[in-house]
């Protein structure tokens, strides 16, 4: 069963996300599929929610490409560690296209039921993506170093 479940997750990445084949959602997801991802909008449940999610990101990043780096399965659970890259060429929830590329990584833990995805827990580097797109400021290393130096100076002055 684990190998069959891994094949279903591979189809998710290849067909729905990389090729944009939205019709495959009905074959991959249970009617009550639940998606847990604090970095993405809530589109509801089931295959239609995943068509909406894929459309959002594939519209914003038409060259979107996800690569499975590791795929581990036990029983009805499949874990995928993945990387992703694309170029921001379309609207992303009100964020105008920047034309900038991004590369991030993430992890998906999926629970399957009767050969379909029933639940997904996804954690990915949304902050890193937003920073690479230039819509969220980068944390400057030298600013952090300066802040540490100031804090150390303040501590040493107060102990005198």
Walk me through this protein's architecture.
- The protein has 160 residues and is of the alpha+beta class.
- The protein has one domain: Nuclear Transport Factor 2, Chain: A.
- Helices cover 39% and strands 32% of the residues.
- The chain contains five helices and five strands; from the N terminus they run ααβαββββαα.
- It has helices spanning 2-18, 25-28, 46-60, 126-133, 141-158, and strands spanning 29-36, 65-74, 77-87, 101-113, 116-124.
- The chain has a five-stranded mixed beta sheet.
- β2 and β3 form a beta hairpin.
- The longest helix is centred in the last third of the chain and has 18 residues, at 141-158.
- The radius of gyration is 20 Å and the shape is globular.
- The mean pLDDT is 92.
Percent helix among the residues? 25-40%
Instruction: Round the mean pLDDT to the nearest integer and report it.
Output: 92
The number of helices is 5
Distance between the termini: 68 Å
Kindly report the spatial arrangement of strands forming the biggest sheet.
Answer: 1-5-4-3-2
Strand content: 25-35%
The CATH topology turns out to be Nuclear Transport Factor 2, Chain: A
CATH level-two architecture:
Roll
The oligomeric state of the chains shown is single chain
Order of helices and strands: HHEHEEEEHH
Name of the CATH first level: Alpha Beta
Main beta-sheet strand count, sense and barrel state:
5 strands, mixed
Tell how many strands the DSSP assignment holds. 5
Number of domains: 1
Spans of at least 5 consecutive residues whose pLDDT stays below 50 are: none
Structural class: alpha+beta
**General form:** globular
């Amino acid at each position: 069963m684990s190998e069959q479940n891994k094949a279903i997750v591979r189809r998710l990445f290849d067909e729905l996300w990389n090729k944009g084949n939205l019709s495959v959602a009905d074959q991959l997801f249970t009617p009550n599929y639940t998606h847990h991802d604090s970095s993405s909008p809530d589109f509801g449940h089931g295959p239609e929610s995943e068509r909406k999610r894929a459309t959002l990101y594939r519209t914003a990043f038409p060259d979107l490409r996800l690569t499975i780096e590791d795929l581990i399965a036990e029983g009805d659970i499949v874990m995928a560690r993945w990387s992703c890259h694309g170029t921001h060429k379309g609207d992303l929830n009100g964020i105008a296209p920047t034309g900038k590329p991004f590369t991030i990584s993430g992890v998906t833990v999926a629970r399957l039921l009767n050969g379909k995805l029933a639940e997904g827990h996804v954690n990915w580097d949304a902050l890193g993506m937003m920073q690479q797109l230039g819509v969220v400021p980068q944390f400057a290393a030298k600013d952090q170093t300066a802040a540490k130096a100031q804090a150390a100076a303040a501590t040493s002055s107060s102990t005198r």
